[in-house]
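Late entry, FE2/S2 (inorganic) cluster complex.
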Amino acid sequence: MTTQTIAKGKAAVQTREASAPTAAASSEVAVKPINRREFLYYIWGASIAVFLAQTTGAIIWFALPRFREGEYGGIFVVDPATVPAVGASPVANPTGKYWLSHTPNGLVALNMVCTHLGCLFKWVEVNRRFECPCHGSKFGEDGRYIEGPAPRNLDRFAVRVTTPTGVIESDANGSPVKIDGAVRIEINTGKKIKGASIGQA
Ligand code: FES
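Prediction complete; structure with ligand written out below:
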């Protein structure tokens, strides 16, 4: 073995000895417990996450309808047997704030509030129309404007009719819905459909 070879061997041993503490140090870093700053950082992150979750939950809760069935703003279930016959006088539901009117074209639920300045109109049987006592606006049985200062037809609530063959719902105009064979009728007082302005009806 030459002197040069011995020198190389010594150098290799020294290199291994020098690198051994580095490996030990890196394994120490891997298992090192979190320090106070890191702990506070994680707590802060968790607090932000909880805050965001609570905020999101609150937004969703407020966005969801909070009206119960049978409350104004919610769904009113109507027994099909109690719906007035076609052409019969409309029936008022004061709790739901609507008139149920069965026209030859189908069923409509009319908002009880006049589209002029908000008075409560009445059905006048002798004239077969709705008349407002405040300023004299008049509307047909389906809520169409006839005369007076009101600027538009009566507003309607969405109607949903369930039959053995399917479901029929009000269109965007709140057009009358046929109820032949209905097993369930729902009036959604949370979904008001604005009456068409005069000249657009
Ligand atoms: S509030 Fe009905 S006509 Fe004025």
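The CA atoms of residues 46 and 67 lie 34 Å apart. Will revisit in the morning.
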